Amino acid sequence: MRAAGIWVFVVAVCQVIGCGPGRDPHGRTGLTGEVTFAGRPLDQGSIKFMPDDENGQSAGALIRDGKYQIPREQGLPIGIYRVEISSLEPTPTPTGAPGSDPAPPAKERIAAEYNAKSNLKIEITVEKENRFDFQVK
């Protein structure tokens, strides 16, 4: 009986100090969301979250069928992050002999205001679900 009481106490202390299954020891949280392009789910691309602080951590994910997900283990701590979204046009498969006319470089489909010159910002908090949806052109 005494061992059961000690076990209940240990579990209660862990929940209070945050060592339960819902907490990350590094303070990271997962992110999810959707990206639409021209009113439709973005078929393929990538999303990056860059820290405002130059010493901060960054994270990224692939976008597939308009959705992205970064698991907590690869996620980010609370803070403000700049968002970069990219999607390259498909390039044709070269049909000539190796070394002849290489395929042209892939062209970015997303406007620079959403990637190279992005001013998109998000704030990651512990108070709410960290779901971020974006509409790009």
Structure description:
The protein is mostly beta strands and 137 residues long. Strands 2, 3, 6 and 10 form a 4-stranded mixed sheet that branches. The radius of gyration is 21 Å and the shape is elongated. The protein is 12% helix and 34% strand.
Largest sheet descriptor: 4 strands, mixed
Shape: elongated
**Beta content:** 25-35%
Helix coverage percent: 10-25%
- The span between the termini is 64 Å
| Strand elements, count | 10
Poorly predicted parts = 5-21
H/E series: HEEEEEEEEEE
Taking Cα atoms only, what radius of gyration do you get, to the nearest Å?
Answer: 21 Å
Task: Set out the fold topology.
Elements: H1 2-17, E1 28-29, E2 31-37, E3 40-41, E4 44-51, E5 59-64, E6 67-70, E7 76-77, E8 79-86, E9 121-124, E10 134-136
Parallel strand pairs: 2-10
Antiparallel strand pairs: 1-7, 2-3, 2-6, 4-5, 4-8, 8-9
What are the main properties of this structure?
single chain; 137 residues; Immunoglobulin-like; 4-stranded antiparallel sheet; 12% helix
Question: Quick summary of this structure?
Answer:
With 137 residues, the protein is mostly beta strands. The chain has one helix and ten strands, in the order H-E-E-E-E-E-E-E-E-E-E.
